[in-house]
Amino acid sequence: MGNEELKMRKVQSVRNTVRSMSAGGSGSNSKNVENKRAAAQKTPETKVSMPKDDTAVQKRISLARDPNTPANILLQLATDDYSGVRRALAENPSLPLNVQVTLAKDIIKLVRRTLARNQNLFTETMRILASDHDEIVRICIATNNKTPAKVLSLIKYNESYAISKALQENENAPAELRESAEKCVQAFLADNKIIKDVIMQMPK
Questions:
Q1: Percent of all residues in the chain with a pLDDT value above 70, rounded to a whole number
Q2: DSSP states of 74-114 as a string?
Q3: How far is CA 92 from the centre of its chain?
Q4: pLDDT tens-digit profile of 146-179?
Q5: Do 149 and 172 lie in a common domain?
Q6: With a cut of 70, which residues of the chain have pLDDT below it?
Q7: For the chain, how big is the Rg over CA atoms in Å?
Q8: What is the pTM of this model?
Q9: Do residues 64 and 147 both lie within one domain?
Q10: Which of 3, 22, 45, 88 could form a disulfide bond with 61, CB atoms 3.0-4.6 angstroms apart?
Q11: Residue 10 belongs to some domain of the structure
Q12: Domain boundary at 155, 170, 191, which?
């Protein structure tokens, strides 16, 4: 075998090696890209937003507000993942007791506040809301003209001006409770000039 032929074989061998490495590298890069894409698709989103115009959500909100929606559907909606559906449900005047109790224990205070304004609540539901840790929920129950005297009596009349004022003006409250609440209102006004000034500036 001549020197020229040996030289040509070496050149060809080097070329084949380069081609092999190049092909292997390209495949490896392609595989890496695919792996990254697959990993990205498997990564869960940290925040999931619920668009207000979402058709499915709007349908559930409509069902939640409809007083003719069957009770079993209302109960399902009481644990809907979207709080907007549960808040709409809290406005429904035809809620069964079990649905009301579920909403009264909702983790979202806006749902409970909305429910506390509902004019068609069972006494048991009102009892739960009257002891809610959120003051505005208690204020809503205190101002609700359907809240019976026995439930109003559960609310601490001297914890804030707003609570005292609500109980003072609720005609369902027992006379003794209204009188005590009125004294608290006067005391809050005497101690807090800011509240007094706001009240004095309000239109009669």
A1: 68
A2: HHHHTT-SSHHHHHHHHT-TT--HHHHHHHHT-S-HHHHHH
A3: 17
A4: 999 999 999 988 888 889 999 999 999 999 998 9
A5: no
A6: 1-53, 192-204
A7: 34
A8: 0.67
A9: yes
A10: 88
A11: no
A12: 155
